[in-house]
Amino acid sequence: MGKTKKKHSKYPAIVGGQVLDSSMDSMEETRFRKRNQKLTISLSEKLHFTYSEVECLLLIFYKLQKESKEFKLGVDKTLFRDVLHCSLKMTEDYLMDRIFYTLDKGPSPYMTMETWAASLSLFLKGTLEEKMQYCYKVYDALGEKLLGRETMFHLLRKSLLSLSGEEDAEESAKEMIEVLTKKMDIDRDGKISFNDYRQTILKQPMLLEVFGQCLPTRENIHAFMTTFAQKPGKM
Do residues 29 and 102 both lie within one domain? Predict the structure, then answer.
């Protein structure tokens, strides 16, 4: 009698540039589903995903976790950055640490399943309100709940460096600060509070990531959704 072939997981073998463990058979997948059933239910009730979508995302996490240096601790920051960079095309390197800290404020360099699912819920299906809260926290590196000129200059200069030389980037950043302050500083105190930012974005959503990319584009959202959802939801 010939050997019975194992049924392998149907989920993607490559995420974020990582070749994931494709040897997971149906028994291992079934065990994983049962072991995490309560967590899947809990996450599907509070995030923007269906039960089956959460299952798929947690399975992708599990495969990524196998590539981590310390399996039991979760997915390490380097792997998560690879997902952001390769799968979601978020390439602003200087913002990556801020993004990771905003999503996971704990001292550990590893991400849990819960944080992974919540992060992708925000990136792939988040509301404008959720995205405004998140983007502002990413930009507010000093935690002052105000974006002063120094913070704005640092963010804008970094964004412009890839487009021009050092001097040009500095001059362009200074000019942009003047323009953005006039447009966004509603209470005219010389700084951009969250309320200033929120009121501006509600009127002009295109300014959501004005200080640097920290969300995937609509195109990349759709591409990532197709890796685990049979029918991608409306973005």
Answer: yes
CATH number for the domain that contains residue 195: 1.10.238.10
- Total number of domains constituting the chain: 2
Q: Which residue has the tokens 């040897």?
A: 23
Q: Does residue 9 lie in a domain region?
A: no
Residue recorded with tokens 């801020």 = 98
> Which DSSP state fits 6?
P
Using the Cα atoms of residue 138, residue 122, residue 125 and residue 215 in order, give the sign of their dihedral.
positive
List helix spans (H) across the chain: 26-35, 37-46, 51-65, 77-82, 93-103, 113-125, 128-139, 149-161, 166-184, 194-203, 218-225
| CB-CB contact of 102 with 134 (8 Å) | yes
Tens-place pLDDT, residues 145-169: 899 999 999 999 887 776 666 677 8
pTM, rounded to two decimals: 0.83
